[in-house]
Fold this protein.
Amino acid sequence: MNQTGSTCGGIFGELSDRSLYQRTLDVDVDYFEGLTHRLATSLIENEIELVVGDAEEGDVMAHDLWRGIRLAAIDRAEQALGREIKQWEFNLSRGDGTDRLPIECIRLNEEQFDRKMAIVRQYDEVRPFVEEAIEQFGWESHRVEKLYLVDRDQPIHAHQNGMTKYELHGLSEVQKGTYRDAIRFQEHLAPIFAHVGAPLMNKQAE
């Protein structure tokens, strides 16, 4: 973050993956309500005009959960500010696998692309996901950054039997004995989204 000249906000890096997953399994609506409030307050105090974040893809639970929190916080900030906050998002797992037309395309030069790929290779925790994306879409698909307008009516992606990819993965790990419990959208995420007021994040595609 420092190398890009970015400034970290008050909730940056607050939770480990393990803690986030446990709070989600516990449906800790009080914590996520507080998180939503703090993000909304930051958006208001800093008079933010544009927010860019993860698209909903149904692949990584934390990304989809955070998107719901983000949408709810933006909705609150817009009401307080009396104006719209522009919202763009990007795909992390699906490459160009979307029917939407991007609102902005940023083609990385060689130096930018090499730096991005070098940083990607440093993250051991997400290396399997990175390798899967590269195998599916190729290295060059990561050269162009495509940003899309947020579609608040977009339902949660379903992959098999109405379940997201992270649900299928979690259930598989439970069967292996790796996890004790698996996070499910309807059981765990939907109540959190409903509590914080995430727009249309309580609907799942069939």
